[in-house]
User: Fold these one by one.
Assistant:
Number 1:
Amino acid sequence: MELVYETRWSRHYKDDDLQLRVCESKFADGTASITVEELAQAWSTWERKDQIDFCQSVIQAKFAHLPDVLRFIMKHGDWETWSSIATSVGRNLPQQEALPFIEEACRVCPVGKGELLFQALAFHRSREVIPTLRECLKRTWSDSRLMSDEAVYDWAAHDATALIEYLSQFGEKTPDLREKYQVLVNHPLATNRQNALHRLSPYFK
């Protein structure tokens, strides 16, 4: 694959024949590293794109202080940077610390931007996350942009589909979820219909 560009934290490749784009973290092979102290000094000076690039890359770091790096981002980041680290937070921090953080991040994330946070929440495989998933679904379902045909893709419907999928993985089979499934598979946009059918039809046959 051809190297297109690289940053301090990542390398970006493409293969035009396969129409493939790949991002490789420099933390994964040890060519990037950072201490918590260095991060604290630099974070506020970075541009937004650099903060996100760092968060997307550092989750593959193998150094022992990764939990403390994650804690720094948890304290000083926002929903967008949190989305990049949420699954890593669930894997590297104690559940009693990670779960409340991810639940709150899900609540404050804008509708249509929550997939990675919902995924991290469901990763815990604990039924105690069901009320938060339900709460997020209720908020998403009431969003005025849901079922819109004014864009190429309806990201509110995407979030709703993801939330129903994760609830279904916990065995939730309530009539309201089936009703929402029927609405989503009849979405005015073909891309959203296909997404809902692919992800949800195994649970609602």
Note: The CA atoms of residues 185 and 193 lie 5 Å apart.
Number 2:
Amino acid sequence: MTESDAIICFSTKGQWTARDVTSLVDSVSEIYDVFSVYRITSHLQRIQEEALLHSLEIYEKNAKHTMRFEWYRLWQDLLEDWQKSRYKGKIPFPMLPSPFPIPGAGKEIPEQLEIFENIELYRDIVEELRIDRIHIASPGGFSFSGLGDIVQQFRELIKDIWYRNKQERTKGELEIIKQYLRIDQEFPNSNLPPVSAMLVDRKMGKKVHANVENMRRLEREGKLLPPPEYVDKRPE
């Protein structure tokens, strides 16, 4: 485990079947992957934005001719509008040839669900969740190791959901999940405000919700101890 990693833990009791073990491991892994998708999306956006800004900077230095400078201004305005839309579509193309190379021209950042379904292609951005320790006994437990920021979000989500009363959970659990699937990430090379609310795919929120419900099932069956009380307690 590296310095930037953290662990999330779950304590168990009673008799566990092989199906119980795979069920918990799959749920924890899938929730981690959903959080990873938003970090991957943010990373891809940043790369695309930085490449565009770099191209603009190079072209500005060489835009000596009046017509070329007007082209530059047109493209700059279009790209700024594209930034403000938070990359909801392809890079815009006016009815003019591009005055400079456009990185990723016409290429959209994949949808969140598409990234999730092909997440193995992005493991260079966010590594897969790893098993840190398993103690099959009663009491026993599991601990998992992953990227610190994502694990911290995961822990806070577990605490937030479990500590709300039943009425609050029923009314707004998906909203709580959506809150934790937001990314607050500034783009240092942009004059735009921070991204405070990246669009959240409802299907992704439902994936997290279904896996949380699976953990609750294990808790109701007396096999999983209250998760928020043990998320940072590694099993012996």
Note: Residues 5-229 form one domain.
Number 3:
Amino acid sequence: MWKAIGVAAILLLGAVLAAVIWLRPPQDLTVESVQVVRWSQMTAADGPASPAEPDKLLAVVRFATAGDLAALGHDFWYRGLYARASLCGSGKTISEGFNLVFGRSGRISFGDRHPGGAGPPDYHVYVALQSSDIAGFSRYDLVKSPEDICLRLEPDAPEYGHGPSTNVMRIPRAALLAALRQGRR
């Protein structure tokens, strides 16, 4: 009997460890490009039809991974994936209200098995380059004072805290400056 209990305990422990490893978000995210757009220029699949601040500047950060972010949003407890943006130097959180993760046809969330559709998934997030007047958020202006931006993805799983996150993607100040120059043409 004790042998059976021991075997069952080992199998259970193995299943738990396998689930933890399997549920871990990818750690290979890499920035592919940075582009600056106005909020009003977001694609219909990504944004509201009439944004609150249509001229607000946003950085569109396109990134790649060998992992399937749509599967994370569908197969597990996640209700969606969220981007956490911060200033790399100070760690100050930025980009309030722009924390959703998108694929080819819109937000990656629970139930969207393959939002990428045909072709590459086109993973991207929007980062607000200037703060809004929202109580509780820090003021910042990356248009006037560009800095390196650190970005990582987390699942929306409040019952488990924030849950495991991806590796940190760094958007260098130089890439942001180049995107700002290109966006102003």
Note: Helices lie at 2-23, 69-75, 173-183.
